[in-house]
Model the fold of this input.
Amino acid sequence: MKDAPTLELPMSLSPSSSFYSPVAARLRVPGLTVTLLRQDAARRLPPHGHPTAYFSFLLSGSYEERLGSRRLHHRVPSVVYHPPALEHRDAYGPEGGRILSIEVDAERLARWGPPGADTHPAHLSRTFRRHLGCSPTAFVQRLRVEHAWTRLVGDEPPPLADLALEAGFSDQPALTRALKRFVGSPPGAFRTAVGVLGAAPAD
Done:
């Protein structure tokens, strides 16, 4: 029987993370760790490396990566492979960025073979779907909806326009459409229903 994936929410700085950027969510399956990183503003990271090989899907924003004397400018949609312990420095642009990182353990990486032509985004998307059951885009959308849902049912839910940006949506209508698709109702109706269910019974 396969090990069940574990999903860690909500957004927090994970002490077990090998990344400098805040971790929005993490999914673990055998041989793979999928991490959604969220950087909300410009930031320069110090030189560092990662113990595990990983792929990075840039979902929004931009960043510059320095590998020795080389400078790489990453824009959406960018996919980058990093072998273990590769030292590099990252500098996020003024709008920050969101990155979906897929760490691959040594055994699985050996089975896949050395990255080359197969690091094309279409191939990685198919591999992601085969192992996790959905596309990277759908996975990130689910994480955004789950984050919004968690905040909506909390004690002090923020205004919907603020929540949309906090959860990574472009605006409030995008959040409304996503909640209707995944939950079946828009955020206003959903929040009202939660409030009614959570209300104290009348004497």
Remarks:
- The CA atoms of residues 62 and 141 lie 19 Å apart.
